[in-house]
Amino acid sequence: MPESIKDKVAIIGMGCTNFGELWNKSVSDLMVDAAYEAYEDAGIEPKDIDAAWVGNWQEVSGMSGLGLAGLRLQYKPITRVENMCATGTDALRNASYAVACGVCDIALAVGAEKLKDMGYAGLISVSPGGTTGTGGISTTAPAIFAMLATRYFSRYNISPDAGKRMLSRLSVKSHHNGNLNPKAHFHKEITVEQAMNAPIIAWPLGLFDCCGVSDGAAAALVCRAADAKKFRKDPVFIKSIRMCVGPAEGPVKQEYDFTHVEETYRAGLAAYAEAGVKNPRKEISMAEVHDCFSITEAVIMEDLQFSPRGKVKEDIESGFFDLDGGLPVQPDGGLKCFGHPVGATGLRMIYEMYKQLQGKAGPRQLKNINLGLTHNQGSMPPACTIAVCIVGR
After folding, report:
1. Alpha helices by DSSP H, the chain
2. What is the rounded distance in angstroms from the CA atom of residue 114 to the CA atom of residue 14?
């Protein structure tokens, strides 16, 4: 039987830049800013690091580990990781496994992206399934996630108006939380009516149902759990870090229901088993999930067993996922408001869990927290890569 990573690795330092339109910063600048915040947080220097992993989607930092050259990790092993929107979490996963197996004492994971400089915007055509030969669909991201929404409304007998209101409630929550975060891309509260009446991107998804395009970087330093207290009194421990890649059959299988993402469900099961979580709704204290679109967050709540199937609407409307609710989700504003520089997003989520567990989240600080969960979805619902990480004290 393979060994578990539970409580073998600790996060001893983290850094995160502001997210947004950072025209005056290069991707190297962002990596340096995030990494040096992590160094200062952990009380270490670059020379103390044994190896590093850099997560980057659009190759702005180059096609190798040379993207981290700005950190002056001379002659240290550096590996570039790319796994779509799960890239940042995968960088942390690799660094954590290296520490857990004993080949590194201290490892660095950095995720960064400069999407604004690349002109990545608008309704860009995508094909789920990539080059596997099972693509079958060529459409825009909003369009295919809109299918998730319309099918969900139909399956659970939700009227178009009630469905739009449910999704708008999620966007209002994210804007409220993001407005409390000085590093978030967007700082503007909105109302349900504003979200419902916003310009349509792909019905029923309006402007406020879609995450923005951002620049940014985040970094984490990890060491063996037994050594963590040498660096700080309040380390955060990795309970599980799991990835799930499906067979990319959704685009070509008539059975695909467009109301759930099997990879998220299975990644959740694996992460819960490793972390020893029996009842996710009650045992997970907070979560950051991949709300690239508001409907994605809604469906994730059911796939991760935070809400019963077909019942997420009731939890959304009751405020269960609000900052003062039973299971706060997106306490930092999520992709919707904090932003989504692809390679950095997974580590940005961990950064929020890290700060919350240390009681350093400022005006959005949660009470009575024990376990934090992060979730990334790379690509589209019918064919995707999922990463789930659970951390705690």
Report:
1. 27-42, 87-100, 141-155, 160-179, 192-196, 262-275, 280-283, 294-303, 312-318, 334-337, 342-357
2. 20
Looking at 16, 85, 244, 389, which residue is catalytic? 85
pLDDT digits (tens, 9 = 90+) for 248-303: 887 777 888 889 999 999 999 999 999 999 999 999 999 999 999 999 999 999 99
pTM for the model stands at 0.93
Give the number of other CB atoms < 10 A from CB of residue 359: 12
d(CA 150, CA 314): 18
Catalytic, 244? Answer no
In CATH, 9-119+215-221 is 1.10.443.10: no
Catalytic site residue from 185, 290, 340, 375: 340
Concerning whether 223 is annotated as a catalytic residue, the answer is: no
To the nearest 10 degrees (0 to 180), the angle between helices 294-303 and 160-179 is: 90
Residue 130: pLDDT band with limits 50, 70, 90:
very low
State the angle between helix axes of 294-303 and 262-275 in degrees (0 to 180), rounded to the nearest 10: 50
Cβ-in-10-Å burial (0-12, 13-18, 19+) of 365 comes to: middle
